[in-house]
Write a structure and sequence with these properties.
The complex is a heterodimer of chains A (about 240) and B (about 400).
Chain A: E1 2-11, E2 14-24, E3 29-33, H1 40-48, E4 53-62, E5 65-66, H2 72-78, E6 80-83, E7 90-94, H3 95-102, H4 109-118, E8 128-129, H5 135-149, E9 153-157, H6 165-178, E10 191-195, E11 209-214, E12 217-222, H7 224-243
Parallel strand pairs in A: 3-10, 3-11, 6-9, 9-10
Antiparallel strand pairs in A: 1-2, 1-4, 4-5, 7-8, 11-12
Chain B: H1 8-16, H2 51-59, E1 72-77, E2 80-86, E3 91-95, H3 96-102, H4 120-127, E4 133-137, E5 147-153, E6 159-168, E7 173-182, E8 189-199, E9 204-212, E10 217-227, E11 232-239, E12 245-248, E13 251-254, E14 260-269, E15 274-283, E16 289-298, E17 302-311, E18 317-326, E19 332-341, E20 347-355, H5 359-366, H6 372-384, H7 393-410
Parallel strand pairs in B: 1-5, 4-6, 5-7, 6-8, 7-9, 8-10, 9-11, 10-12, 10-13, 11-14, 12-15, 13-15, 14-16, 15-17, 16-18, 17-19, 18-20
Antiparallel strand pairs in B: 1-2, 3-4
Classes of the chains: A alpha/beta (about 240), B alpha/beta (about 400).
């Protein structure tokens, strides 16, 4: 389980998150809503442990262990994975190399080929990662790497942005594989935290709880579909007014 | 061993250029190096060469214990050819002295792709002619395995002078791997190598050169290539070991329609190494194409990465790509890409980038579970990986082996 307690996070000396509290139970997936600049990506980056996102207060507990001071790679090896919204192009490093890296060097040719087929990226294995990829291809490549990594907690930053309707179904399918949708709830281990603007992904993924982030704080929690309907109807202004 | 006999006209031109400094690179004092070395015995069986020499040669891609995977072998130690043989009919591999005696017509190729009076180094090679290799694929012949050549500097403070000629006759295919290396890890030496390539109509030559010198050696290769109609020249150069001073600017001249040239260079400069390395292509016939790609990596040394493409005919196309990475310390990478177009309808482009490894890329890999060191190594390995189209698998493997060996030391 993931337990975030009273978390403050600063970026380049500027405080972005203030007193964030969030719990995700084992096997649960959580959606995070909020207007641009509200701090959603900062929260994901801080959970993953990127050095630019400096925790000034509070703690992040993952599987009972305080990981607040651990490095990115240590958190990845503990079982946290992230799908970037805009991952970098790394020239010379092939998509296949990324899968091998995610599998900690244990990837055999057959497993790699199967993963690529599932993500419809067979022809991309020998291409430089993210180089010349379309929006949908980038997202699928991110999820393919996560499927190779098998994290227990998956952080997803707008998995549906820049993706057409054909791709979104495939992305939903890959996400469900990652989050063990076919596994009975009581046996399910994998957790997810998904940032979504449009909410399209909620049609494909079983999300139990939604949170709204405004100005660096989580201000409201509830049924994600209900939250989404409210946002669509009344906008975040209503949320801001409601929590005052 | 026969002596190389050149004409008086070349001797005269060389004498006139004896003191002519090269346009680029540090001026090397030739008088500091011995011209003569002891005569070495010819070895009919190259596997009988000393274990030390074989080990050094192996690191430069030259295999002597089992030559079944080679179409031919040429070994020169200092200024003596100590072995040459061809394992395939239709492929000639011999000392240039013998080839000049055997083929009268070879004089027509002598100093035709490189000017004898280009600088004091070409002049020196002509005036103190020692030997070199002659490799030729007869019309329509294709090498099954690569031909290998090794130029080995055994004696300290020696100037090794080499003049090579490579001819691919019409519609032939020739794959060559050349390893240049030295016996000593720290003795000074000078390697002067003239290489002239002639690629006839429809012929294909891949030339992979691996240099393993030492921090005290100066190297001045002088290379010219003439490519006829539909010919292909693919040149790969790997220098990942220290060298005191290396300067070369090989030039390829596309004289036939649709001639194609590709140059790939992979350079690593440790502290104290100075490398001034470029590739020059003249697109002189309709439809000629070229691609020049270099990867320069410094851990403290200096790399000047040059490139020059000149378009002088309709529908020619050229692209130059230079990427430099300063890995640590105070190394310098100076990329000098040049394009010159002399008529409408040509298409020349270049891209050059010099920098350090982007932190964002390292963190991306770390987010998949790699440590910082592993992530950096993966990015460097990717940087040095140049996908070479048209290279036979054996040569591709040799090239990768040479690069991987240096990567390990680097990390």
């Amino acid at each position: 389980m993931l337990d975030i307690k009273h978390l403050n996070v600063a970026v380049e000396g500027k405080e972005i998150l203030r007193d964030v509290n969030l719990s995700i139970g084992t096997g649960e997936t959580h959606a995070l809503f909020g207007p641009n600049g509200s701090g959603k990506t900062t929260l994901l980056m801080a959970i993953m442990g990127f050095p630019r996102y400096h925790v000034t207060k509070g703690s992040i507990i993952f599987k009972g262990k305080d990981i607040t001071r651990l490095g990115v790679d240590e958190r990845a090896r503990l079982g946290i994975g992230i799908s970037f919204q805009r991952p970098p192009v790394v020239r010379g490093v092939k998509t296949k190399d990324m899968i091998v890296a995610a599998m900690r060097g244990r990837g055999d040719e057959k497993t790699i080929a199967e993963l690529a087929e599932r993500a419809d990226l067979t022809e991309f294995l020998d291409r430089d990662i993210n180089y010349g990829f379309s929006g949908g291809e980038i997202k699928r490549a991110e999820l393919m790497q996560l499927l190779a990594q098998k994290p227990e907690l998956t952080l997803l930053d707008e998995p549906e942005s820049g993706v057409d309707l054909v791709n979104i179904a495939l992305i939903g399918e890959l996400l469900n594989q990652l989050l063990e949708k076919d596994c009975p709830m009581r046996k399910r281990k994998c957790m997810g935290l998904i940032i979504t603007h449009t909410g399209h992904i909620l049609q494909y993924v079983n999300v139990r709880t939604g949170s709204i982030m405004l100005d660096g704080r989580i201000v409201c929690q509830g049924d994600p579909h209900e939250i989404l309907a409210t946002i669509k109807e009344k906008g975040y202004e209503e949320c801001a007014r409601c929590v005052k | 061993m026969r002596e190389v006999k050149s004409t008086q006209a070349y001797k005269d031109k060389a004498k006139a250029a004896k003191a002519k400094p090269a346009t680029l690179g540090e001026d090397i004092d030739l008088s500091a190096f011995a011209a003569e070395a002891e005569a070495l015995p010819y070895q009919a069986d190259p596997s009988k060469l000393s274990a030390k020499a074989k080990k050094q040669m192996m690191q430069a891609g030259v295999i002597l214990d089992d030559t079944k995977q080679r179409s031919g072998t040429y070994i020169q130690m200092d200024n003596m050819p100590v072995h040459y043989s061809s394992q395939q009919e239709g492929i000639e591999v011999m000392a240039i002295s013998e080839a000049l005696a055997k083929h009268d017509w070879l004089a027509d190729y002598w100093w035709k792709a490189v000017a004898v009076d280009a600088d004091k180094y070409t002049a020196h090679v002509e005036l103190s002619q020692s030997n070199g290799y002659f490799i030729r694929a007869l019309k329509g012949q294709k090498t099954v395995y690569p031909v290998q050549a090794c130029l080995y500097l055994a004696k300290a403070k020696l100037a090794q002078n080499v003049h090579n000629i490579i001819i691919a006759e019409e519609n032939s295919e020739l794959h060559i791997i050349t390893g240049c290396t030295t016996a000593s890890g720290d003795e000074p030496g000078l390697h002067l190598g003239v290489s002239e390539f002639y690629i006839k109509k429809g012929a294909k030559v891949t030339f992979t050169m691996i240099h393993n010198w030492n921090p005290e050696i100066a190297v001045r290769p002088r290379t010219g290539t003439i490519i006829e109609e539909d010919g292909l020249f693919l040149s790969n150069y790997v220098l990942m070991k220290p060298v005191r001073s290396m300067q070369m600017y090989p030039s390829a001249n596309c004289v036939g329609e649709n001639a194609t040239v590709r140059y790939n260079s992979i350079l690593l400069a440790p502290p104290g190494s100075h490398m001034d390395i470029g590739s020059r292509v003249l697109l002189n016939a309709r439809g000629a194409k070229t691609e020049i790609i270099s990867r320069a990596l410094t851990t403290g040394g200096t790399i000047i990465a040059r490139g020059y493409i000149e378009g002088n005919a309709p529908d020619v196309k050229g692209h130059l790509e230079c990427r430099g990475l300063i890995l640590q310390g105070e190394g310098t990478i100076h990329a000098i890409p040049e394009l010159k177009g002399n008529m409408a309808g040509i298409d020349l482009s270049h891209e050059a980038a010099v920098g350090k490894i982007a932190e964002e890329e390292v963190e991306y890999l770390m987010a998949r579970g790699l440590t910082r060191t592993e992530a950096t190594a993966t990015i460097v390995r990717g940087f040095l990986r140049v996908d070479i189209e048209g290279l036979p698998p054996e040569l591709d493997a040799e090239l990768k082996k040479a690069i991987e060996a240096s990567e390990k030391e680097l990390m």
